[in-house]
């Protein structure tokens, strides 16, 4: 069974063809190259310009997979949460395909998609699991009771983890997106150089705003010359503090709830330092940690197609009248 | 009591900024737009948390920097925007978000300077400045003839 997945909930326009919910036939995320490849004008600002991107992206996903539209059995699309204007473009496009090809439409929640990134990478992995979704827009700690059944334990009270990375990158004068930039320069930095205070909140919630402000205060005391000199240490120390906050809460939840396996996903899960630290600390306690392939961490349509496959199998087909839901969660 | 003029407050902590937001919420009515200006870490989201709490919204108020908009529902619907990631104002026009500025909810806009000429003419302006590690100067004014107090 071939599912075409479509994802336009935030910045990326993405499409993918996935066979039987696990075999990735194509995985296309918009890039400037695709526009040029199809002879379009390369707009200065193409990301989030989903209307212009969606047709070239879907076409490329079909071509990369070596299939025609007629061979697609169902279309899965991100319906929630996200930017309403962005969601609507993917959803409307998917509805049109569903209607014109007379194939089922399957609405998928973006967060559930992130969870499925791990099921794609580890086909044998089955719940119950502890889940951690860390991205630019989300920092959620949850219990994955079974596929399709999730319980939220805690989330950020202010800034999402990826957002903190981006804002600190901005403070350090690095370019956007901040996460990869910080990771790049921290390779030479000392992660224990500056003792930034970790955000402390009760229970399983997180707070990253205070850490961001601590970096800001630290930088304000430095001259431009000192800033430049200490940049890598500041970035490395910030990154380590943020990662340790995530590790600490996750492992605390695992110990308290006696869940031995943790599945981390979302854009920030691509961070190598985060992966290393999680693996190291979990090992000490005898826990297992899973991360998706890096390519499946950031927003993509493969995870949407894979998640859509399970919904389809359960008969969870959407009507053509469904609406985009900017705030709906899975909890 | 302070009516119809600029109010300048010095906040000494995030808790005070939050409390100030709660107090300011009393001045807000359906259809109001509040534009926030101030650098990273100046307390925009913190003050908005206070405003939302003052408007009867319980929890769930977080930074919308990545998602641009969060919507909270209580007696009034609150549209919490954040234009931190907006590079050009045309991006906003593409999404049609500016339509939210003219409806019956209460609109709170972070990084309002990024969309300056798209801002509704009648609005509150809240300018937040970092004075030092703990102190913030918060300057609240209304662009029209609105009589308000907090």
Q: Give the overall form of chain A.
A: globular
Element string of chain A (H = helix, E = strand): EEEHHEHEHEEEHHHHEHEH
CATH homology group of chain B: P-loop containing nucleotide triphosphate hydrolases
Helix content of chain B: 10-25%
What proportion strand of chain A?
A: 15-25%
| DSSP helical segment count of chain A | 10
Along the chain, the helix and strand elements of chain B come as EHEHEEHEEE
The whole-angstrom Rg of chain B is 14 Å
How would you state the average pLDDT of chain A, rounded? 93
Q: Tell me about the largest β-sheet of chain A.
A: 5 strands, mixed
List keywords for this structure.
heterodimer, A: 331 residues, alpha/beta, five-stranded mixed beta sheet, 44% helix, B: 150 residues, Rossmann fold, seven-stranded mixed beta sheet, 3 helices, 7 strands, 20% helix, globular
List the helices and strands and how they pair.
The complex is a heterodimer of chains A (331) and B (150).
Chain A: E1 2-7, E2 14-19, E3 23-29, H1 32-37, H2 50-65, E4 74-80, H3 84-101, E5 105-109, H4 110-121, E6 129-134, E7 139-146, E8 149-155, H5 161-171, H6 178-186, H7 209-220, H8 224-257, E9 261-265, H9 272-285, E10 288-290, H10 302-313
Helix pairs in contact in A: 4-10, 5-6, 5-7, 5-8, 6-8, 7-8, 8-9
Chain B: E1 7-11, H1 14-25, E2 33-37, H2 44-54, E3 69-73, E4 77-82, H3 89-95, E5 106-110, E6 124-130, E7 136-142
Parallel strand pairs in B: 2-5, 2-6, 4-5
Antiparallel strand pairs in B: 1-7, 3-4, 6-7
Helix pairs in contact in B: 1-2
Outline the structure in words.
The complex is a heterodimer of chains A (331) and B (150). With 331 residues, chain A is α/β, with parallel strands linked by helices. Chain A has helices at 32-37, 50-65, 84-101, 110-121, 161-171, 178-186, 209-220, 224-257, 272-285, 302-313, and strands spanning 2-7, 14-19, 23-29, 74-80, 105-109, 129-134, 139-146, 149-155, 261-265, 288-290. In chain A, a hairpin with a 6-residue loop joins β1 and β2 (14-19). Chain A is globular. Residues 39-47 of chain A have low confidence and may be disordered. Chain B has 150 residues and is α/β, with parallel strands linked by helices. Chain B has a single domain, classed as P-loop containing nucleotide triphosphate hydrolases (Rossmann fold, 3-Layer(aba) Sandwich). Chain B is built from 3 helices and 7 strands, in the order βαβαββαβββ. The A-B interface holds A 10, 45, 48-49, 51, 81-86, 135-137, 155-160, 162-163, 166-167, 170-171, 176, 209, 212-213, 216-217, 220, 326-327 and B 40-41, 45-46, 49, 62-63, 65-71, 84-85, 87-88, 90-91, 94-97, 130, 133.
């Amino acid at each position: 069974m071939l599912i075409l997945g479509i994802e336009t909930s935030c910045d990326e326009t993405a499409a993918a063809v996935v066979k039987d919910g696990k075999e990735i036939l194509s995985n296309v995320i918009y890039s400037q190259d695709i526009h040029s490849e199809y002879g379009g004008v390369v707009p200065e600002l193409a990301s989030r310009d989903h209307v212009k991107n969606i047709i070239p992206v879907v076409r490329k996903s079909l071509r990369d997979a070596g299939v025609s539209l007629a061979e697609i059995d169902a279309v899965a699309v991100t319906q929630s949460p996200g930017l309403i204007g962005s969601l609507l473009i993917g959803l409307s496009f998917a509805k049109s395909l569903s209607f014109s090809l007379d194939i089922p439409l399957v609405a998928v929640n973006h967060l559930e998609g992130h969870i499925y990134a791990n099921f794609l990478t580890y086909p044998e992995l089955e719940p119950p699991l502890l889940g951690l979704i860390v991205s630019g827009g989300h920092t959620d700690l949850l219990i994955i009771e079974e596929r399709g059944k999730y319980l939220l334990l805690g989330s950020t009270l202010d800034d999402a983890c990826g957002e903190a990375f981006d804002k600190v990158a901005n403070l350090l004068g690095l370019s956007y997106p901040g996460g990869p930039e910080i990771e790049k320069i921290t390779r030479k930095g000392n992660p224990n150089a500056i003792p930034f205070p970790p955000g402390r909140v009760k229970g399983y919630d997180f707070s990253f705003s205070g850490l961001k402000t601590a970096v800001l205060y630290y930088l304000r005391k430095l001259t431009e010359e000192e800033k430049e000199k200490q940049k890598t240490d500041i970035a490395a120390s910030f990154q380590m503090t943020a990662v340790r906050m995530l590790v600490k809460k996750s492992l605390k939840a695992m110990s308290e709830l006696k869940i031995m396996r943790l599945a981390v996903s979302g854009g920030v899960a691509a961070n190598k330092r985060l992966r290393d630290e999680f693996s190291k600390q979990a090992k000490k306690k005898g826990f297992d940690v899973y991360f998706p392939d890096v390519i499946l961490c950031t927003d993509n349509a493969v995870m949407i197609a894979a998640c859509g496959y399970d919904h389809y199998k359960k008969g969870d087909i959407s009507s053509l009248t469904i609406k985009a839901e900017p705030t709906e969660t899975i909890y | 009591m302070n009516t119809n003029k600029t109010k300048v407050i010095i906040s000494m902590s995030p808790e005070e900024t939050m409390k100030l937001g709660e107090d300011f919420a009393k001045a807000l009515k359906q259809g109001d737009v509040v534009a926030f200006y101030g650098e990273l870490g100046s307390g925009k989201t913190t003050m908005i948390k206070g405003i939302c709490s003052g408007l009867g919204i319980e929890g769930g108020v977080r930074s919308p920097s990545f998602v641009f908009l969060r919507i909270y529902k209580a007696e009034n619907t609150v549209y919490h925007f954040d234009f931190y990631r907006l590079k050009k104002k045309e991006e906003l026009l593409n999404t049609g978000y500016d339509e939210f500025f003219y409806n019956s909810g209460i609109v709170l806009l972070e990084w309002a300077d990024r969309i300056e000429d798209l801002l509704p003419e009648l609005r509150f302006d809240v300018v937040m400045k970092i004075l030092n590690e703990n102190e913030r100067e918060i300057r609240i004014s209304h662009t029209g003839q609105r009589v308000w107090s907090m």
